[in-house]
Design a protein that fits this description.
homodimer; alpha+beta; 11 helices; 15 strands; globular
Chain lengths: 409, 409
C-alpha cells in the first residue's frame, strides 16, 4: 500500500482558467477504464516541456518535441494509458501523428498544435482506431473541473491518483497551480514511466516558463530518477494559460518570478514524492540526504548508489538495520578519492558510523527503532565540501516482484 | 534452486602439490558450521591477486594488499565466513593483523606472509578470539584433499559449494588446476561479495602469473560484476605452487603460456558462472551477448544495462516475453549517438525487433517458448562496429527479496 499518500479529493483540485479536460474509456488495454485524456488550452496558453533522454524514446515523445519546436501555439495535450507506443518504429510514429491529426480536426487547429503522450506496455502497436473512435467523447467531456478524472485516466500500475492544487498571491492576483502526475515502478526509477502536467493561470513569459520548468524538474522529478530522464516516455509539462489578472512575469530577478518558481517547484515536489510513496510494492518512504560534498554531482552519485541498492532496499523492507550495506553503497558510488574515515552516517537522528567504522555509542536497538518507521531519513556527511542533495526512494518488497512479474498477465 | 549447478563431488577435486587446506568450525556466526579455512602454500609458491575497488573496502582487503606488496613469499591464506570485517575502521584492521600474526606463529613465518580474507555481514566486529582459538584446529587439519570442505567453509548464502579441477599437458608434464569460489547476491553484482581461489602446480614466472590472473578475471568474474570489483570484500587469487616437473613458463608469446592462461580462464569462467547459477533466488541463467559495438566499453554498458534492470529480470522470472523492457534498457545504456533503427534484438534464436520496432515475423508464442527455458541467451546486434562482449546474470524472484530481507535474522 502507498506510504502516507491520501487519495486526492475532487473538491481540493482547483480549475485553471483557460484549461479544460475531457476523459474517455477507449478500451486501449482494458474495458471500463478511463484511459484517454484531452487537455484543451486557451488561446493565450504557453507550454514548456522536458522529455526522456532514452535513445529508444517513444513515438509520442519524438512527435511532442517536434510540435513544441515548430513554435505554433499548443492547443491541446492528448494522453493515453495502456500502451506506451515505444519501440514501435515508423509505424508507431505514423499512429501518433494520426491521433494528433484527428484531434486537431475536432478542435479546429493544426496537428502541430497537439502534444501527444503515451504510457503503458512497450513495443506493442498503439490501438489507434480505438483512440480515434473515443476522441469525440473526450471533446464532449471537456470541463474545467475534471482534474481528478484526468489524474485517474493516466494511471498504469499506480494505486492512488496523484493530483494537487496550490494558490498564491502574485502581482495583486490570486494565481492557481494544479498538477497531476503518474508513475509506477520506482525501484530502478530510470525505467519508471513518469508523466507530470502542471497548469497555472499565471501570466509569464515563455523564457521564464521554461526556466521555472527546469528549476522545478531538477528539484522534484529528477530527484527520483537517475541518469537523467531515461525511461522511454518520461515527460513533464508546465502550462501557463496566461488568464490571470496580473502583469506578465518577465524579469528573472523579480520577487514574482521567484514566488511563482518556488510554488511550481512545491507542487512538482509533492507530485514526485507521491510517485515514490506509491512506488511499486512500497512500504517505506525514504529520504536520502547527502551533505558536505565537493560538488552536487558527487552528492547525487552517493545518494543514488544508496537509493538503487537492492540490498539496502530489502533491508529497509525487513526493518533490519543492516547498515553496512549503506556503507558499501557509499564506497562504490564512484568517488575515487573518497576518505571513508571522514564520513558520518546517520539513520534518522541516530549516528550509525564514523571514523570508517561503527559509531562508539551506536546501539542496534536505536537503529531498529528508526528502521521500523514508515518514513526514514538516511543522512550522509561526506565532510569534503559544502554541496548537498536529497533524493527520495522507497523500499523493495515481495510485491515489487509480484507487480512486475505479472504486469502484462 | 540453483540453475543447472550440480553439487561438486570430492573425488573430482584434485589436490595440488604444495597446497594443503585445513578447515575448522570457529562459531564465527553460527554453531556447527565450517567457517574458517587455512590454505598453506609450499616454499616455491607464487601468488597473484586482484581486489575490490570499493572505497569502504574491508580490513582484510587492505591488509592482504599490503602483504602482497611487501614482497615476501606468501605462506598461507586465511579465510573466514560469517563476518566481512568491512566498515569496521581501525579496530577491524587490528583484528585482521592479529589473526595473521597468530597464524604466522603457528606456521613459523612472518605475519606479512599471510593473506587474510573475510566474507559475511558488514560492519560488525570480527570475533577474533573465536578465530584465534580455532586456528590450531585448522592447522591440524591441513591436507591436500580438503578442497570440497574448503569450498564449503567459504559459503555465505550460497546453496551449492563451487569447486572444480582441470588437468592439461604442459611442457611435458600433467598440470593440475583446482579452484573454489563463493558468491551470493547477483542481482546488483557490485554488491555481491565474491571470493575466488585458483591453485595450480604449474611452474610460471610471477609476471606471467599476474598476467594470467588479469586475463582470466576480465573474462570471468568481471563479466558478472559492474563498475569494476566494487563489493567491500571481492578478491580473486591465483596461486602457482611451482611443483610440477616442467620448465618455468616465462615467455608471454609461448604456446605454453597461452595454454595455461586459457585453462585458468576456463576454470575461472566456470566458477563465475556457478556464482550466477546460484544467484540469490535464481530460477534462470541468462547470457547477454552484445555484438557489433564501436568498442568493448559500449558493449559492456548495453549488456549491464540489460543485466541490471529489475524490470527485465522480473520479466525473465515470470517467463514473460515483455521485450520492450530490454529495448528500453538498451536505450538508456548511455550511448549518446545510438541509432536504434539499426539494432537487432534476438531472444535465443528468435529475432524480436529491428528497425526500431517489433520484427515483422515475430510471434509472441516464439518469444514465450524461449522465455520458458532455464538457460536463455539475449543477443543484441548494435551494427556500429566489430567489438563484442558477453555477461552472465540471473532472473529476479520473490526469493531474492526473501533471502536479502532475512539475511541477518
Amino acid at each position: 500500500m502507498p506510504v502516507n499518500l491520501p487519495v486526492p479529493q475532487a473538491e481540493h483540485l482547483l480549475p485553471i482558467d483557460g484549461v479544460t479536460l475531457g476523459i474517455a474509456e477507449a478500451q486501449i488495454k482494458k474495458p471500463q477504464r478511463k484511459d484517454l485524456l484531452v487537455m484543451r488550452l486557451g488561446d493565450r496558453a504557453r507550454v514548456a516541456g522536458v522529455f526522456t533522454l532514452n535513445r529508444f524514446c517513444a513515438a509520442p515523445v519524438i512527435v511532442a518535441k517536434e510540435h513544441l519546436a515548430a513554435g505554433k501555439p499548443i492547443r491541446a495535450l492528448l494522453v493515453n494509458t495502456g500502451n506506451a507506443n515505444a519501440g514501435t518504429g515508423e509505424d508507431g510514429l505514423a499512429r501518433t501523428r494520426r491521433s494528433c491529426a484527428e484531434l486537431a480536426g475536432l478542435l479546429g487547429c493544426a496537428a502541430e498544435q497537439i502534444l501527444p503522450f503515451s504510457t503503458g506496455v512497450i513495443m506493442e502497436p498503439l490501438p489507434i482506431e480505438r483512440i480515434v473512435a473515443s476522441l469525440p467523447a473526450c471533446v464532449a467531456d471537456l470541463r474545467g473541473d475534471n482534474w481528478l478524472s484526468a489524474a485517474q485516466a493516466i494511471m498504469t500500475t499506480d494505486i492512488v491518483a496523484k493530483a494537487l492544487s496550490k494558490q498564491i498571491r502574485l502581482g495583486g492576483a490570486t494565481v492557481t497551480i494544479t498538477g497531476i502526475a503518474k508513475g509506477s515502478g520506482m525501484i530502478h526509477p530510470n525505467m519508471a514511466t513518469m508523466l507530470g502536467y502542471i497548469a497555472t493561470d499565471a501570466r509569464i513569459s515563455q523564457t521564464l516558463l521554461d526556466a521555472a520548468l527546469r528549476h522545478a524538474a531538477g528539484r522534484s522529478f529528477n530527484r527520483i530518477t537517475v541518469d537523467g530522464d531515461t525511461s522511454t516516455n518520461d515527460s513533464f509539462l508546465l502550462i501557463a494559460s496566461n488568464e490571470a489578472a496580473m502583469a506578465e512575469i518577465d524579469d528573472a530577478a523579480s520577487r514574482e518570478y521567484a514566488a511563482f518558481r518556488d510554488a511550481v517547484t512545491e507542487v512538482a515536489t509533492a507530485l514526485a514524492q507521491a510517485i515514490v510513496r506509491d512506488g511499486e510494492g512500497a512500504t517505506k518512504f525514504i529520504s536520502i540526504q547527502v551533505n558536505g560534498g565537493a560538488n552536487e554531482q558527487e552528492c547525487s552519485q552517493v545518494a543514488y548508489a544508496i537509493a538503487h541498492s537492492p540490498l539496502v532496499k530489502t533491508a529497509f523492507f525487513a526493518s533490519d538495520p543492516n547498515l553496512g550495506r549503506i556503507q558499501a553503497a557509499i564506497g562504490y558510488a564512484g568517488i575515487a578519492d573518497l576518505d571513508v574515515s571522514r564520513i558520518q552516517l546517520y539513520l534518522g537522528d541516530v549516528l550509525v558510523s564514523e571514523n570508517g567504522g561503527r559509531a562508539a555509542n551506536y546501539r542496534e536497538e536505536d537503529g531498529q527503532r528508526v528502521m521500523r518507521e514508515a518514513e526514514i531519513t538516511v543522512r550522509v556527511e561526506l565532510n569534503r565540501g559544502t554541496a548537498c542533495t536529497t533524493v527520495w526512494t522507497c523500499d523493495f518488497s515481495y510485491d515489487y516482484v509480484k507487480i512486475n512479474a505479472e504486469y502484462r498477465s
